Amino acid sequence: MQLKPTLFREYDVRGRVPEVFDDATDELSDDNMRLIGRGFGTMAKERGLDRVVICHDLRHYSPRLRDRFAEGLVASGMHVVDIGCGLSPTLYFAQIHLDSPAGVMITASHNPQGWSGLKMSLNYVQTLLKPEIDRLHEICRGGAFAAGEGRIEQTDVRQAYLDDMVARVDIQRPLKIVLDPGNGTAALFCVEAFERAGIDVVALFCEPDADFPNHFPNPSELSAREAIRAKVIETGADLGFSFDGDGDRLGVQDHAGNDVNADRVLMLLARPVLARNPGAPVVFDVKCTQALAEDILAHGGTPVMWKTGHSYIKTKMVEVDAPIAGERSGHLFIRDGFHGYDDGLYAGLRLAEYVAAEGRPLADLLAEAPRYVTSPEIHIECADEVKYEVMERVVAEFQDAFGDRVNDINGARVTFEDGWGLVRPSSNLPELVLVFEGQTQEAMDAIKERFRERLRAYPEIGTTWHNE
């Protein structure tokens, strides 16, 4: 079998499907999905596990990927529990609910149409990290698979998932909230969850449609939030929540339709958690605003900056025993009163609970917090085959130029007197990700131009900056 090496990424498997890309036969083909299924089943057997829960998103090709992957699992002797079409958080819940440490989510997450992948776990919600992904690649490449006669059963956990989520929040005053899943998989869950929690829901693009006719379900893209901004203003809603393709990320609008980055949402969610857990660590990724660290300290917590990536953040949460964590991209992880995995719907309910309890608009609550001028997440092309080597050179150059002002835990985050800039390799796509922040717009723009000038020297990096 020909397995493209770039399928095996930092903490998951991700690639293109032949249904959309003619040259993707060495990526997520039938044969390769069976092969990876046999490899994961072999890894599970190495851990003494014989059962795995699987779930898939609603993309057109996801059932085909699910079937072939399950065939590989069965060939390795695994008992497969298929919970059908759902969210990544539904899969994590099912692992706990069904007491199955092994679980696999078949999803493209926020990747463009024609992509898919596998989020995998051998220890409940703690998804695989790079050494385990490397081990999976080694097994698939070497062909030393476990063998047996497995089986497949179907189980529905949808109502149990919703019951568990809604029972954990108490929203104390009426709120009107616009929900926009972008016709993605979250459309199957979000309206019922919020209405059961007592929310007056304005449904926007809540009809499941794998063609995504209105906008792509990715709250990190500014264009994907244009419609919800307008709908919040039109309906006089208190909040607007949007969800990505597999429901593990949250986008937020305030009552005026303004975008609220997830690092500032984490700032608010952390306050009551820190009141209950004085001195506790709060984990966040390198893309987050400096205001978050300042607010955590102001409310008696300990800020912990870490690598971007849901697997990295969940692992660090357990390591430092943090009750809450988050990423700028919209992943929010809550262990305080919850299971510790990233669930965009639950994070939205917790934010609604907080805003309702405070009795003031979200914008007013945020106005009291530190604030800087922050760019959106900017993307520039850089091929998967070279992006990590290029980043090593970029980090080395920045360290020569800026010394100990460079934080290199994940790319290069360079601190200046009036702000900071970050460039890091995307874990999921052939690109680099940049974020900039300044005390003023002028300071942020100046830092951005310093980065732009330096990155021009690398022919492997594209010249078009997307989502500026």
Mean pLDDT: 97
Provide the structure class: alpha/beta
CATH superfamily of the largest domain: Alpha-D-Glucose-1,6-Bisphosphate, subunit A, domain 3
Going by CATH, the architecture of the largest domain would be 3-Layer(aba) Sandwich
Radius of gyration: 22 Å
Shape: globular
What is the number of independent domains? 4
Q: What is the percent of helical residues?
A: 25-40%
Count the helices. How many? Answer: 14
What top-tier CATH class of the largest domain fits best?
A: Alpha Beta
Topology:
Blueprint: E1 13-16, H1 30-46, E2 51-56, H2 62-75, E3 79-85, H3 88-97, E4 102-106, E5 115-123, E6 126-127, H4 130-142, E7 151-154, H5 158-167, E8 176-180, H6 190-196, E9 200-203, H7 226-235, E10 239-243, E11 250-253, E12 259-260, H8 262-276, E13 281-285, H9 290-298, E14 302-306, H10 310-320, E15 324-326, E16 332-334, H11 344-358, H12 362-367, E17 373-374, E18 378-381, H13 387-402, E19 406-407, E20 412-416, E21 419-425, E22 431-438, H14 441-455
Parallel strand pairs: 2-3, 2-4, 3-7, 8-9, 8-10, 13-14, 13-15
Antiparallel strand pairs: 1-5, 4-5, 5-6, 10-11, 11-12, 15-16, 17-22, 18-22, 19-20, 20-21, 21-22
Helix pairs in contact: 1-2, 1-4, 5-6, 8-9
